[in-house]
Design goal:
Layout: H1 6-13, H2 15-19, E1 23-25, E2 31-33, E3 44-45, H3 46-55, E4 62-66, H4 67-87, E5 97-99, H5 106-116, E6 122-125, H6 128-137, E7 144-147, H7 153-164, E8 168-173, H8 176-189, E9 194-198, H9 223-235, E10 242-246, H10 256-275, E11 282-284, H11 308-326, E12 332-334, H12 339-342, E13 346-356, H13 373-383, H14 390-409, H15 415-438, H16 448-453, E14 455-459, H17 463-466, H18 468-472, E15 479-481, E16 491-496, E17 509-511, E18 514-516, E19 519-521, E20 531-534, H19 541-544, E21 555-561, E22 569-575, H20 580-586, H21 591-607, H22 613-628
Parallel strand pairs: 4-21, 5-6, 6-7, 7-8, 8-9, 9-10, 10-11, 11-12, 14-16
Antiparallel strand pairs: 1-2, 2-3, 4-13, 13-14, 13-20, 15-20, 16-19, 17-18, 21-22
The structure holds pyridoxal-5'-phosphate (PLP).
Length: about 625
């Protein structure tokens, strides 16, 4: 193992680059986690967590949540804003909210509320069911609740209920008609609403969510519409209810310059509205704080070219500068960061259940009588070793293979002949690849050899359930073995999931500072599990998954650090994944009657004497046990 060390593993998988201080590679070659930003010396060995999960009889795949990371992220954003506000002698406060659409899991929301309590950290909702959740879960009278999204009468009424409960609940007007609904409702119920105005921003953001701003944006009011809203509120003697100006130019903003531009535009609008006599108190800058998923610190869609400190400082100083110029009091700053709060705290751990090689190379290729000339030619090439230039050898092999294919279609080549020829073809390619590798040669045209020869590692999970954005929008998520990182990874492979969909695979991998089509992993050992982690899945991925092929939600394991025993951790809770039965029921199947039907058919075979009664019972029980079981592959 002298030709490989931890530094090289780090170089390859970039764990420190995307790990944000939480993830690294330990001396023993296992992934190491430092979940508490205040105590970076308290670390957990991820392989110990995996072993403990196995010991508890829990099957993979599983989502592992590190609640200490969630808490750390909440503390970091609040403390970073507090520091910047102090440094800038800024007169307003920071009043953050967590947008629950990013991860609505109850345990996640509870943990965030608990960690955020000292800072009066609040919640944001964008739909009626989310509003019902935040109404119950944000009971801190000093914390904001921001209500976005399109609203109907029930939505608005629930928001007014929040006001009756003395909560700081701000209804953000997304379109003018919502105001016309709200005014009579508030009067009729005798409740004074807190109103926010969402501005349709002129700045054009970039990246996957560029459509969130500009003239054609789905949400928000143009300047003309904002002025109409103001006028209408003034008419109704409700202008004092207008408390907040809101904007959100998109998620995962990769370029800090767009953020500065948006802050300038938003702050200017805020100041001008205050000068018009609107008694605003809050400026809400929305979400968008990015995550460096690919670890490149760049403006690619899966990265960001700034730090959290820089983001916060640019917001605070940017707003201050404009308000000072306009002679307007500094607003309280609200931000709705969701991705940045949650992405790091959870990961999917699963096992590799098989390897799909590009083509079989273990068929007996020894010569037999009366072989076709094409097979002979290929064998000659195969045995020629490195007599030829790699490029020439490749050209010949590809030519023979093409001719063989034509001959096979015409019925000239037999099945065994075709099998031998194909096997030798793949062995030749492998040879060429090794020789290029050893001599450190690079031949442009042979670059594709790497892809052609890559294996597929079959991974026990569904990307549609656990990593939807990798499929939908080409998001890069880091995937790294949990252990053996002190060993040189020898197999180039891509990761395929167990759905029947050809799309069901990861297509982008972090390899150093590049994005690759495949990634080096370790050879699989018989009788030994090979666990890999798909990291940074805590934002959106956890909750957006669908049940393609009826693969259900994963088992969840919630891990906490021990306060008093450094290096130790405990599993606080295990939430079982969705059973096959539950998944079928959501598709309207009656699983009870399915079990009965299958039992009836088994009984019929028993009556006919084709099955022993004892066997019949065994089959019936087995079917029922599978219904109650996991939707994923069981590995014994
Ligand atoms: C989605 C959304 C957010 C969260 O954005 P992140 O980029 O995840 O921080 C915040 N505000 C609004 C209005 C949103 O729609």
């Amino acid at each position: 193992m002298s030709d490989w060390n931890i530094e090289q593993a780090e170089e390859l998988y970039g764990v420190n680059r995307w790990g944000a201080g939480y993830f690294s590679i330990g001396e023993n070659g296992n992934i190491k986690i430092a979940p508490n930003h205040r105590y970076p010396d308290i670390t957990i060995d991820m392989n110990d967590v995996v072993e403990e999960i196995k010991a508890e009889g829990i099957e993979f795949p599983a989502v592992i949540r590190f609640h200490d990371i969630l808490r750390s992220q909440v503390e970091i954003i609040n403390e970073t804003f507090a520091q910047a506000i102090a440094d800038a002698d800024y007169q307003g406060e920071y009043c953050g909210v967590f947008p629950i659409k990013v991860n609505q899991m109850r345990e996640v929301v509870e943990e965030i509320m608990d960690a955020g309590e000292p800072y009066d950290y609040g919640l944001e909702a964008g739909s009626k069911p989310e509003l019902m959740a935040v109404l119950a879960y944000n009971d801190n009278p000093n914390a904001l609740t921001i209500l976005n999204g399109y609203k109907d009468k029930d939505y608005l009424t629930l928001a007014l209920l929040g006001r009756q409960l003395r909560r700081k609940m701000i209804i953000v007007i997304e379109k003018y008609s919502e105001l016309e609904m709200l005014i009579p409702l508030a009067k009729q119920l005798g409740v004074e609403p807190m109103i926010g105005l969402r501005s349709k921003m002129m700045v054009r953001s970039s990246g996957k969510w560029a459509g969130s701003s500009g003239d054609r944006a789905k949400f928000g009011l143009s300047i003309a519409e904002i002025l109409n809203v103001i006028e209408r509120l003034r008419e109704e003697d409700m202008l004092h209810c207008a408390k907040l100006l809101h904007f959100h130019i998109g998620s995962q903003l990769s370029d800090i310059r767009k953020i500065k531009e948006a802050v300038t535009e938003g702050a200017r609008l805020y100041a001008k509205l205050v000068q018009e006599g609107v008694p605003l108190e809050y400026l809400d800058i929305g979400g968008g704080l990015g995550i460096d998923y690919d670890g490149t610190s760049s403006t690619t869609d899966s990265s960001r070219n700034y730090s959290t400190e820089e983001y916060v400082a640019d917001v605070v100083w940017g707003v201050k500068q404009i308000c000072d110029l306009e002679n307007v009091a500094h607003p309280n700053i609200v931000s709705e960061s969701g991705r940045a709060m949650t992405a790091h705290h959870s990961c999917v751990v699963t096992n590799i259940v098989g390897e799909i090689k590009p083509a079989g190379t273990d068929f007996d290729v020894s010569a037999s009588d009366n072989e076709h000339i094409l097979v002979k030619n290929m064998r000659e090439l195969y045995l020629s070793g490195d007599q030829y230039h790699p490029q020439e050898r490749y050209n010949d092999a590809a030519g023979y293979k093409q001719n063989a294919y034509e001959a096979f279609k015409l019925g000239i080549l037999s099945l065994p002949e075709m099998a031998k020829l194909d096997t030798m073809y793949w062995r030749i390619l492998t040879d060429i690849h090794h020789s290029l590798d050893e001599e450190n040669q690079f031949i442009q045209e042979l670059e594709e050899l790497e892809d052609m020869l890559a294996s597929q590692y079959l991974c026990n999970f569904s990307i549609f359930q656990s990593a939807a954005d990798t499929w939908a929008i080409g998001q890069v998520l880091p995937i790294v073995p949990i252990s053996r990182l002190d060993e040189k990874p020898q197999v180039r492979c891509s990761i395929a999931d167990i759905t029947c969909d050809s799309d069901g695979k990861l297509s982008k991998y972090i390899e150093g500072t590049e994005i690759s089509d495949n990634i080096p992993m370790h050879t699989l050992k018989k009788g030994e599990d090979y666990h890999v982690g798909l990291f940074l899945t805590g934002a959106y991925q956890d909750v957006m998954g669908d049940m393609h092929n009826l693969f259900g939600r994963l088992t969840e394991v919630h891990v906490y650090c021990h306060d008093d025993e450094p290096g130790d951790f405990y599993i606080e809770e295990v939430v079982p994944g969705t059973s096959a039965e539950k998944v079928l029921q959501t598709m309207q199947y009656n699983t009870e009657s399915m079990a009965k039907t299958v039992k009836k058919q088994i009984d019929r075979q028993v009556r006919k004497g084709k099955l022993a009664p004892r066997e019949g019972v065994r089959w019936t029980n087995f079917y029922e046990r599978c219904l109650a079981g996991s939707t994923y592959l069981s590995v014994d």
